[in-house]
Amino acid sequence: MNRYIALVLGSAILASGSASAADNVTSQEDIASAIEVAFGVTATTRYISRGVAQSTGPAIQGYIEPSYGIFYAGVWASNVDLGTSDRAEIDLYAGIRPQFGDLSLDLGYAHYFYDKTGSCCGEWYAKAEYAFTEEFAAGGEIYYDHENDAKYGVLKASLALPHDFSVSGAYGTYFDNTNDWNVGISYTLQEKITLDARYHDSNQGPAYFIASISFDSSFRLGR
């Protein structure tokens, strides 16, 4: 009888251990499948940031961004020509993107590096966009560099047009007399390739007409 009870208890323990192991494997697979990795590359006739040219000619820019739920982190890079020895900019960033109905938020921090001079600076950012209709969305962004006590804000809007076209524009300011704005039209092919023609202007320097082509995609781990 005691031997029978021992066999029953032993089998139950083994079964329990096997179930726990199976649950653990399932959990790991679920976590892996919930991790999405977005990536993309852009070729542009000139790298423009906040109305100021960061390159004297064409630029190639790329990024990779893993995310899990509302959490994300990524790296973005571009060639630059700033009149210095630096030839590349590398941005590291991380944050969260919660969504409340038609309101999308993006809260995070980005730090900027250059290939020769190293760490430059960093900014906290908060972005909000509201989809008023399926075609029209508008929002704003605010950036704060706590080391240099510098602020930059943007108001923007976009309107989807028939046949996968859209128009968009933005107005940015450093909250002083330094302002910039842009307006452009885009065409998206199969939700992955985007052609964009955009006019940039500011009170900091010359205006630019920029053309770019972008490829964006994503995949999930564990699939």
UniProtKB/TrEMBL annotation:
Q: Which InterPro entries match?
A: CHP02001 (IPR010239), Porin_dom_sf (IPR023614)
Q: Where is the signal peptide?
A: 1-21
Question: Per the UniProt entry, what species is this protein from, by scientific name?
Answer: Aquamicrobium aerolatum DSM 21857
Which named protein is this?
Uncharacterized protein
* Keywords assigned by UniProt, alphabetized: Signal
